Amino acid sequence: MNQQGTIMETLGIETIHLSADRVVCTMPVDGRTRQPFGLLHGGASVVLAETAASLGTFANIDQEQEYAVGMEINANHLRSVADGQVTATAVPLHRGRTTMVWDIKITDDKDRLICVSRCTVAIRKKPS
């Protein structure tokens, strides 16, 4: 999958593990992902969560015939982070024909939970 020129490249998101049952992605906490007060921006956490859910859905579909797009996401930010790296781990809660729902937990370098998210991803047929 080409990540050049995408938000993944811009924010430094890397995929560590990708399977149909689990996705692990990391993202640095630096000038690209901090808000003006020096902490990880909640929006950056949401981008990381949706990225993991979308990649997981991609791993579950017929990639020749279908594509995945985020449909809904929520996030609870539980702890602030000022530096280091955060890790998102996504697991599927529901695998349907037209949607998948993912549970995503984001942790810091000390394995402390900083954000929990749930993301619904739509599965669409590619145009012929």
Which helices and strands occur, and which strands form pairs?
Layout: H1 7-11, E1 14-18, E2 23-29, H2 42-60, E3 66-77, E4 84-95, E5 99-107, E6 113-125
Antiparallel strand pairs: 1-2, 2-4, 3-6, 4-5, 5-6
GO cellular component, one term: cytosol
Domain Thioesterase: 37-115
Keywords: Hydrolase
Descriptors for this entry?
128 residues; alpha+beta; Thiol Ester Dehydrase, Chain A; six-stranded antiparallel sheet; 19% helix; globular
Question: What does the main sheet amount to?
Answer: 6 strands, antiparallel
N- and C-termini, Cα separation = 21 Å
User: What amount of the residues lies in strands?
Assistant: over 45%
Number of domains: 1
Summed over residues and divided by their number, the pLDDT gives a mean of: 97
Order of helices and strands: HEEHEEEE
Overall number of strands: 6
- The name CATH uses for the topology is Thiol Ester Dehydrase, Chain A
- Give helix % range: 10-25%
CATH architecture: Roll
Task: Please state how the strands of the largest beta sheet are arranged side by side.
Answer: 1-2-4-5-6-3
Overall spatial form: globular
- Uncertain runs are none
Structure description:
This protein starts with 6 loop residues before the first helix and ends with a strand. The chain has a single domain, classed as Hotdog Thioesterase (Thiol Ester Dehydrase, Chain A), CATH 3.10.129.10. The chain is built from two helices and six strands, in the order H-E-E-H-E-E-E-E. It is globular. A six-stranded antiparallel β-sheet has the order 1-2-4-5-6-3. It has 128 residues and is an alpha+beta fold. The relative contact order is 0.22.
